Amino acid sequence: YKNKYIKSEASKIIDTVSKSRENEKYYSNTNDTTEKEYLEFDNFNFKLAIIQELMYDINVLQPEFDIYEFAKEYKGEEIDPALDYFKNLQIPKSLAKEVGSFYMDGGNEVYMNIIPLWDGEDGYFDLNDVSLTELRQFPNLTEATILTDDFDKIKKIFDAAGIKVELL
């Protein structure tokens, strides 16, 4: 019940982001017409791990999304999920070189901004699939610590890309 409630509440956030042009800080990254090339992701949980690194750890992907700040600004309005915000977020290819490593943990800010009271115990954000094509977009990525239920499979893909990977 707790997770359903949290997902329901979080699901109210993005509609306001997409409907309200008053708060441009939530649009500056996704509507940047000067940036023509964006990273491509086949696996959303991998994208979230990259967003964590770029937005919350090294602070080069802006604006930093904060569900609590956003909810305060739009108090009383109907809003859709933060999950949609991250799904629709376009990451410029120019930021790929900034990623040297990433660390997936149940307490990462990106997950807390999607499901604020998530306990990290259910595998919802596990990296159980990733493609070599996705990994090769990050020329400086040398190591990663991941959450997964299928480490042997994922390790083979990381090994093929020459990236050291560890299970959290």
Show the helix and strand layout:
Elements: H1 2-10, H2 13-19, H3 44-57, H4 67-73, H5 82-88, E1 101-103, H6 109-112, H7 132-135, E2 143-146, H8 151-160, E3 164-167
Beta-strand content estimate: 5-15%
Structural class: mainly alpha
Helix count, DSSP H or I runs of 4 or more residues: 8
Poorly predicted runs are 13-35
The helix content, as a percent range, equals 25-40%
Shape: globular
Radius of gyration: 16 Å
Total E-strand runs: 3
Order of helices and strands: HHHHHEHHEHE
From the N-terminal CA to the C-terminal CA, the straight-line distance is 27 Å
Largest sheet: 3 strands, parallel
Rounded average pLDDT? 83
Strand order of the largest sheet: 1-2-3
Oligomer: single chain
Description of the structure:
This protein has helices at residues 2-10, 13-19, 44-57, 67-73, 82-88, 109-112, 132-135, 151-160, and strands at residues 101-103, 143-146, 164-167. With 168 residues, it is mostly helical. Helix 8 (151-160) links the parallel strand 2 (143-146) and strand 3 (164-167). The longest helix is centred in the N-terminal third of the chain and has 14 residues, at 44-57. The model is unreliable at 13-35 (pLDDT under 50).
